[in-house]
Amino acid sequence: MHKLVKTIVLMAACAALPVMARYKPVAGEAPSAEAGLTTVALRKLEKSVPMTPQMRADRNALAGHSVRSLVVNQKLEDSTDRLFTHVIKHPGSITNQKSSGRCWLFAGLNILRPEVMNTFNMKNFTLSQAYEQFYQKLEAANRSMELAIALRNEPLHSRRMDTFLQHIISDGGDWNYVQALVVKYGAVPESVMPNDYAASHTREMNALMATRLRKAVIRIRKAAGDGASMDQLRGIKMDALKDVYKILVLCLGQPPQTFQWRYETKDGKVSKLETYTPKSFYKKFLGNDMNDFVRFVNYPGKPMHAKLEWDWERNMADHPNMDAVNITMAEMEAMTLKSVLGDAPVWFGANASAEGDVKKGLWLNDILDAKDLFGMDFTMSKADTLAYDNGTPDHAMVFTGVDVRNGKPDKWKVENSWGTKPGDKGWFVIGNGWFGRHVYEVIIDKRFVPKELLALTKKKPIVLPPWDPFTDWVKGE
Amino acid sequence: MFIKGRRFMTLALVPVLAGAFTALPVLAQFTPGPGEGPDQAGGLNPALIKEIQGSLTMTPQLNATRNALAAHKLRELAVNQETLNQTDDLFTHVIKNPGEITNQKQSGRCWLFAGLNIMRPAVIGTHKMKGFKLSQAYEQFWDRLEHANLSLEMAIALRKEPLDSRKNQLLLQNLIGDGGDWSFVTSLIDKYGVVPQDVMPNTYSASHTHTMDNLLATRIRQAILKIREAGNKGASMEQLRAIKTDALKDVYKIAVLCLGQPPQTFKWRYETKDGKVTPYKTYTPKSFYSEFVGVNLKDYVALVNYPGQPMHAKLEWAWYRGMEDRPNVSAINVTSDELANMCKNSVMGDDAVWFASNAGAPGDIKAGLWSDSALDYSGIFGMDFKMDKKDTLQTYEGAPDHAMVFTGVDIQDGKPDKWKVENSWGSKPGKKGWFIITSGWFNHHVYEAIINKKYVPADLLKVDTQKPVMLPPWDPYSYD
Question: What CATH number belongs to A86-475?
Fold first, then answer.
């Protein structure tokens, strides 16, 4: 009897305990003495690195200088000029995303500029990034809340739940986000809704919105546990969205519903002052061609000429996931060339953290020669780079020119959104070899896409999981 | 489990197809769960947008806030001036002989700086020194090597796991980070000893680790690729470890070039408080530790406050260790009050306390004040951003991300009111590098403290011998 009572008490105590995420390590994960660095192993390592005069010289140089500053391949840099055989007409002035992850939005709005400036004979033209950013945040918050509702029965700390919570709201995005935003909300000129402090420095604003959304996730899960209806769960969502809206209005300003605007023409004249809504403005100046663009990726390791779809990667709850056709680099290069030669700038995604001299604005293969300094090879194939998380697309920019030599592209002119300090007053160069290694994604106007590639967009997609590394930057990592 | 993941095909049924499939790249066909796909009913339709817009009235007050925010940092506008003015810089007890403020610069070595700093006061006192700093770069050198060995051993253990599995993805994303914990410090000192800072000072890469660590990670990834290829071909453990050793030689070389060669013996002397210079003496790193520093590392116990996990239980984090052949990080889970009480007794006993907290939580870094009311975001936006500690951890809102040292306490009405903190961010922020943590902030954002046994109650010490609750490698507590 006494024993039984004890057991019952213990059981009750156990039930009151919080959920224990007990984890069972498999063989080899636990500490192991034989696998440690023994004295013998350490001596071997030491012996393998004799301090030659060359090594001593390198060590001395590295003591006070960054690796990057010592390994710039000067010969390569000196032999690269800034000239291009074709540059598109009417590029706009260089923009600056500052401390925000809005590259995809800047590049997305910037590819629309040349045609507008040409058609309307404008001196300059920049679209408001903050206007799209405002609605991007609101839509992304709604998407996250809908996902929280969908995942309400998912255990905390499952892979799905953790992926969701770690990226609940971020600055990341891709072309399909720009497309969806402009079609739904239209666009306004930059002067009508300029970048306020928080638009350009998003960290704190994002953190506050994330906190507000996490609180809603907790409420949604609690309510669902108590048997709340979908209506009630969406009521919790709306409460959170109202707060998100308020934070956005205070940080970014209220998006205009109508506005008056005029512009200066190339020959110094001022156009008539007219009243627009964001949608009428979009219709008049940008036309309706947002849907004429096709998204291509080069994702070695995934089947070629297949359509890929990334689950969860959408900025609006009611819009399709991001998808793309997987093509070879030769195909990507050919279409990009055709497009630039046809005066259509190309939105692209690349790994901007890969080998490059950002100060000078040069992304060239082997421009950082760490191999010679350390005496070892750091290269990895593009497929392995992605699969082993050694690099992923992390920055969107615009191709606006190309240097063709012997009928082939030798290097590309790039419009960046890092202001006018780095590079050649903000303009960058990408070598064609670097294009092959580190460019992952391009957006091409239909008219430059061969029929057989266009046909692939109709294929049934292969769905990739939300933690696929290719979309790390979209999630906001 | 809700993850359905791959669809398997019975190979026996489709032998021809199977041949074709093996040649294809791996298809990670993913099946979305219910409600995860696009949903018209969940979209922001015009009626909902109108409802949201209608919920906000731009009062004069809100207009004023909006205008101020247009050109200013939130953090600067939100500083609660009353809190700032009402918090003085005085403490009822401050430990003797603290060293000079250190600077980890652009590296994640806070755990190491704090770990080496708590040993200084006793050494400075015992040897009557003018000042004293231990070399962080020396421990960092061996930490890079040990960390690489640990990651490669983990890759060998996981060689049959799919590359995109949760475990492998976690490993690949955290191959050779700068992070660490107290037990990493004790393992390093126990195995490699210590040297004074002037014997192996911080090089550029020691203080700016980004590029060095990226190169190390790339070299380790190349080895993991080889290990998996060899593993698939049925390589023996010896062959796999040979691939590991090749990579470790390169890691060693990169570390020597970037951080310098760790000394095996060195001559050293110091200046005393009264300006005298001691005679030269020759040490090895291990003899220097035992003769000169002499702190018994086994006397320290790790305690955490992890609400959501069982109280007064021992917790252990899988994978979380500084060396392959040392135990995982483990700690006794206690209440925040118990933690504060032990910290207080330790500081009152002139023993500095290593602790870990969420330094990203609200605080005025410029003024060096971490207080729950330091930043008034609620006042600006008219909404509540508070979250309890358990939810904070569980939703990735915050987790311990910075280690520092308690060196003083201000006791009011018998209870700690605020703490004096030695940070490792140089002498620019805070009061010449010294920070303040209030007792409220301690409760919400301090997660871990390392306490000398003599200040730990016997009933808690007993918990240390319990069988630990094993937490997964992706536990949010150790995630950063």
Answer: 3.90.70.10
